[in-house]
What we know:
Blueprint: H1 3-35, E1 42-45, E2 50-56, E3 60-66, E4 69-74, E5 78-82, H2 84-92, H3 140-151
Antiparallel strand pairs: 1-2, 1-5, 2-3, 3-4
Amino acid sequence: MSLLTLLPFIVLIGAMFLMTRSAKKKQQQAAEMRNQMQPGSGIRTIGGMYATVKEVNEDTVLVDAGPGVELLFAKNAIGAVLTDDEYNRIVHGVEHDLKSDADIVPDDASSLTGTGDSAADAPADDKAVDLGKKDAAEEPADDAAEAKTDAEPKKTDGDTEAK
């Protein structure tokens, strides 16, 4: 056999060796992370549940998932041990790295106008503004006719033109 026919097999064996080596290294890092777990640390399981470690045994971990909820997991089911800041940010929504002087979005748009008066602070007018009707001074006869026709109900014989 020539070296040229053995070359694909050699490359294949070398690639398999490199892949198993990196996978073994990742497994060792995960085992080391699980062994460094201590009671009080925040964790994420491989299923995506966040909890606090209550007790660590040789192969199992007792976690507190909420008030009165204690769960027993295999150590291999722990996906990540989180830092305190990361755990608080995810579970409790606490952000420690936010700037205290950051712009705050107002609840209403009155502060965006620049006048300083909000709708609640403005004095209420006794006269209601009617945007849909004509002024009474322009055509008083039309308003009286509309009021009269509104008071009398229209009678129909049941036939409608819309079909």
